[in-house]
Every structure is written in structure tokens, then in C-alpha cells.
């Protein structure tokens, strides 16, 4: 597995009935790097993540993980290795602990309270939250629990969908640091969706810009500062101070 | 009771007809249709049963049960239209109910293997199983819609379809069984069960009528549990494809009726 790319897409399209959601996307995500995925609402970013996690399959084209067609992976193994933190941070009813245990219990294993407490510390949450009901969490706390829960499976590839959207400045910093730490220490390939272009440029090694189901531009993160593409110029305009 | 006295009983149809007319409920047509249908259907069944009982031929018993299963399937399938292959799943459920209950009843010599026993008991059990199926399918389709995000969360974390649907399935099985269990708690206090009332009116010993009714109640409990569980485990796999993805539903889960 010493290929350069973690995920490669070849002419990938996804349609829901007559609706074309992803249109002929070709590109790759470098292994061990952080890629920021940006683009206006409805661009198809979340759909791309669902494709990579195997929740849906492309209507056309192929997705390869470590050069092997995604269809050849056993679905449960694929999803554990390509971890996805969902945009809305869906929670099971019950305690934070129950939610953190979920990935383990699905595999027939248990997560000790100590392990769970460590995970909370990792995402800068207080251990006391463990026994808290998820219904009583703030939006930001939910997002952090959602990240922690995705980390339980120790994925090699991590897909994070707008995980800082309801975090304050300090929490956002915590999470940005966490992303860089996981990437540096464990060599995890991270792709994350954000609407903050400053954040995308700072944290990402690479950037993908999607619009209207298409991949408009991809390359090193600096591309957002001097975009060549007219549409990207329009999109990035005003976001940098 | 003669047909003449029975026609006098039509007075009880006139009362709701007059009420619906005066209160403008607009149910007059339905009431008339329901009355006519029940007269025709029940009389026909009465004559058919007389014929079947007298002929003592097993093939007629078999045909009667097939007819019941066909009618029950036809009624229940609309509620599960969004579940692939729901028709044969219902048929299989009803067949299992019939075989299990009659197998135990006849096998242990609880009731004799005679049309007089097999047909009415089958009718009650398949009818009950049909109602249970409708309750289950209604709830199950609603649960799946409502818990779509939860289901996908579990899948996304590496859970199997069975794990992802477990909560919806258990909730629906429980919910569909509750009416059966609840109604058995108050039975005899509020209303006498139909079969027992019938036997008592026909002059049977009340204690013997009660024994029979208890047998039926136990059978109904079994039917309730078996119906929901079989139907549930037959249905959930069709919601997923071989890649363990939630299959998108055709938008026809609301019955036209
Ligand atoms: N399950 C679905 N069924 C039908 N249409 C869908 C479905 N999921 C997404 N879409 C449509 O696909 C398009 C892309 O959606 P997607 O959620 O991927 O966008 P996004 O880039 O993540 O947007 P946002 O930034 O708002 O999260 C949208 O037009 C959306 O309405
Ligand atoms: Mg999205």
C-alpha cells in the first residue's frame, strides 16, 4: 500500500433519478495529507463523502481506495477504514458514552469508560460529559462528540463534514489543532469540508473546489488566494481579508 | 332465528342511516354498501360452510384456508407496498401461522381434525394475523422514514443492515403486539369475546365456552408474536442492497384507500 493516493476518482457521477448530483468528477486525494473541500451550498460535497464511505455507489465511474476499487471492499470494513463524521452530527438517543461506544458495540466489542474519557479529552471536552444525555448537549459539543465517535474506529482515512460550523473561535482552534495532530501523529489522511476559506487555506495541504456537482479546481491550498478559474475567483472573492 | 326475524333486525341499520342523514355525516352510501356486503358475504359463507362440513372432504378445508390467506394478503399488502415482494412475504407468514397453530392443535389433539374446528379457528387466526400485519407494516414503514439518519449513522460506522434497522424493527414488532396484549387484559370485564358470546347464545355451557375462548386467546398471542417477527425479518433485508446501502424507496408507501 505505498501508493501515493488514498482515494482516486475516475469520471465519477452520481444521479438521484433524473437529478445529476455529481457530474463526471476525476481527481485524487493524497495519502497522509489534509485536503480541504470547499464550495457553495448544494455543490455535492456531502454526496462525495457518502460515496467515499460507501453509503451510496457511483452511477458511473470508479472510486478507488488505495488503488483498489471501492466495490471490492467488504462494506463494513470499508466504512471503518474510511471514517465519516456526518454533517448534522446525528446522535443515538442516550448518553454520550453510549454514542462513543457505538462503533465498538457494532463490532461486538466494548469501549471502556477510561478510553471514552480519553477520547473526550482529545476533542477538548470535559470527561464529566460522558454520562450526559446527548439531548442536553450544545451544537458544538455534539459536533465534537461526533468526531470522537468517528475516531473510535481508528480510520486511516477521515472524512469530516463541516465539523466546525457551530463552534466558537476557541473550539474551532481546538479542532483545527486536533485535525493537524491526528494527521501528523497517526499519518491519517484527512479530507474536511469547510465554508471558511481562510481555514481551508491554513489547515489544508491541498484544496478541492466543487460547484454544482463538478470539481472546478484542485491543487495546493494556496490556489484559493490566486485562483485562475473565473468561477473560483467569484467564489473566493471577499472571503480573504 | 328465522329470516323474517333477521329482516326485522334491519331496523338497526335504519338508525345509523337516519342519523347520518340528519347530521349530514355523508356516510349513508358506505353504510348501505357495508350492510349489503356483510349480508351477501356472510350468507355465502354460511352456505359454503354447511356444504364443507357435510362433505367431510379435506380438499374443501384446504380450499377454504387458501381463500382466507388470499383475502388476507390482498387486504394487508397495500400497507407494505413500498417493501419489495411484500405479497409473497405475507402469504408465507400466513402459511406459517396456519401450519404452526393447526399443527399444535391437531398434533396434541387439543382440537379434532374436523372442518368444524379447523375452519373457524383458521379464520380467526388468519384474520388476526392480517390485522397484525397491517399494524406492523404501518409502523415499520413510518419508523424507517423517521429513523433514516440513525440507520445511516450506524451503517457509516461499519454496522450491518441488521444492526442499523434493529431499533426500528423491535419498536414496530412491540407496537403491533400491544393492542393484542392490552385487549386480553380487560377481556371479559368490558366485553365478552364474540365467539364465546355466540356459543353461549347458541346454548353452550358457559364454562366450556370460556375454555374454548381461552384457547383462542392463547392462539391469538402466538399469532401476534409470530406474525410480526416473521414479517419483520422477511421485510428488512429488502430495504438494503448487497453493498449494505439503504435502498431508496418508491414513493408509494401511502395506501390509496
Ligand atoms: N438523498 C438525496 N436525495 C435527493 N437529492 C439529494 C440527496 N442528497 C443530496 N441531494 C441534492 O444534491 C445536491 C448536493 O447536495 P450535497 O448535500 O452533497 O451538497 P453540499 O455541497 O454538501 O451542500 P452544503 O454545503 O449545503 O452541505 C443538492 O442539490 C441536494 O439537494
Ligand atoms: Mg453538505
UniProtKB/TrEMBL annotation, chain A:
GO cellular component terms given for this protein: membrane
Pfam families: ABC_tran
Alphabetical keyword list: ATP-binding, Nucleotide-binding, Transport
Cross-referenced CDD domains: ABC_PstB_phosphate_transporter
Single GO MF annotation: phosphate transmembrane transporter activity
InterPro entries named in the record: AAA+_ATPase, ABC_transporter-like_ATP-bd, ABC_transporter-like_CS, P-loop_NTPase, PstB-like
Stretches assigned to the ABC transporter domain: 7-236
Gene Ontology biological process terms from the UniProt entry: phosphate ion transmembrane transport
Keyword Lyase listed: no
Record-linked PANTHER family: ABC TRANSPORTER I FAMILY MEMBER 17 (PTHR43423)
Record-given protein name: ABC transporter ATP-binding protein YjkB
UniProtKB/TrEMBL annotation, chain B:
Transmembrane feature ranges: 44-69, 90-111, 117-138, 214-236
Stored InterPro entries: UPF0014_fam
GO CC list: plasma membrane
Main location: membrane
Domain of life: Bacteria
Key words of the record: Membrane, Transmembrane, Transmembrane helix
Membrane topology recorded in Swiss-Prot or TrEMBL: Multi-pass membrane protein
Compartments, record wording: Membrane
Short name of any one Pfam family annotated for the protein: UPF0014
Similarity comment text for this entry: Belongs to the UPF0014 family.
Protein name: UPF0014 membrane protein YjkA
Source organism (scientific name): Oceanobacillus indicireducens
